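User
Take a look at the entry that follows and flag anything odd:
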Amino acid sequence: MKYVLVSGGVISGVGKGIIASSVGLLLKTTGLTVTYVKIDPYLNQDAGTMNPIEHGEVYVTDDGGEMDLDIGSSSRFLGTTLTRDHNITTGKIYQRVLDQERRGDFLGKTVQVVPHITNAIQDWIQAVATVPIDESGLTPDICVVELGGTVGDIESAPFIHAVSQLQRRAGKGNFVQIHVSYVPVIPPGPGGEQKTKPTQRAVGDVRSAGLNPDLIACRCEQPLEAATIQKVADMCQLGAEKIIAVHNVSTTYHVPMLLEKQNVLKTMSDLLDLDNYQRSPALVEQGKSMWKEWVGLAKGSDHALETVTVALVGKYIQLKDAYMSVSKSLEHAAMHCRRSVKIVWVDAEHLEDAVKEATPVQYHKAWHDVCTANAILVPGAFGERGTEGMIKAITWARTKNVPFLGVCMGMQLAVIEYARNVCGIEDADSEELKPDGKNHAVVYMPEVDKTKFGGTMRLGKHTCVFQEGTEWSRFRALYGDAKEIAERHRHRYEVNPDLIGKLETAGLTFVGKDVKGERMEIIEIRDHPWFVGVQFHPEYLSRVLAPSKTFLGFFAAAAGCLDEITKGLNKKN
């Protein structure tokens, strides 16, 4: 097994995950099988209970793991299905070691960070690195390990020690470290000087911690000057060919191409002795085809002449990362429709009447964005805040024939809106939003644990069955002759099955249900260009080269090419 460690210095949030995923993608295009491990030094067992405004979205895997959004980035780039164990946190490691201590596995020894915690980290990485990839059953050739946070943080110290030991376990020629640093420009903008001192200090920090970077990836807003690259090389005792310049590009999908132009593959091949590594001819050809398609899509997105505007009506828009997978799914769909997408971020609260009186400028701006958009998307959320604004946006989409997609809570609110305004159930609501029981519970909580929060939702991949008599469905047509689909879920509340008859009589069709027919999975209105709600989260399965069909259909409807996209998909099927 060969390992590629990607660490970061100076500051966090400079694109470590994208660089790690891009390196993995490049290795995969040569016919190698690549897996990915993300280390998060926080104490939480997982990201499931974290506030999306503080930490960004929670990404969910097939097996119900709730984890950091960087796992989503790697999955989208590599097209690989990862598991909950591919995300390591301090909480998980300490829980495992403490469980071992309680069982007596350490035979009375004093349990310490070194060697017990550090050994547990190495054992975890090595075990996960050999887990077969997807349904193919192929054992990975290379494991990309992304170390979250910044080297020098107190939380990262045990992990730094562990991966430095892992380097020795792996052996010479089987371990490469890429250290990502930031090169600021002072003063900012054209004419400013590119400063290398932060990178010099960052490399000094990582070396003092026991690691010696093989490559340094320098992030900068603008292309690095040759003199800057040479200075970093000289001060960090590396050849200039091992200094990777990663400047801002039009989209993150250009980053692999940027690295490829700098011969990163050749450098990695030399360091890991990949020229002599056995590869399957079929995987080599598959890798070449994948790279050709990737480059075509990435370059094509730069030349798209038509822009489709999507109003994303949410409640966490202060941090765009809270909707990372959603926005990336829209980008994937846009590339495959040969269009560009403009996401207009609308704070759902600004659509509510209370804001009209308090801050009319915000109110009218929000409504202008909704009314002028080509399509309206209401994503998942929790809690009551902003939900009345979301419902108002849904009403607009339904009555004005604007393409609409509701995801998770967005789907539930679409059902509530229909119950109120079409079925005449004026007090229709959700137990989550009105827990006092005085409303008509269109959305309720079934059998999930109500006493805890972490890991208690309906999580992971579940099957959705298309219902008889829904062959007319625009959504269903995207899947050809398929009778069922499987998608990932993350929710506590669901549509009340007792009201399905009344809703369907009024024209809201439940196109998809779970295998028992008890959980409502997909809604659709027949006489509408595209009015679809899904209880699952299709964004978790969207890939650059294989966009989510849910988002592809929604975007294609907004772009006016739904029939063309549907025909193309059915040819492939």
Q: What stands out?
A: The chain has a mean pLDDT of 91. The chain has two domains: 2-44+110-294, 304-572. The longest strand covers residues 458-466.
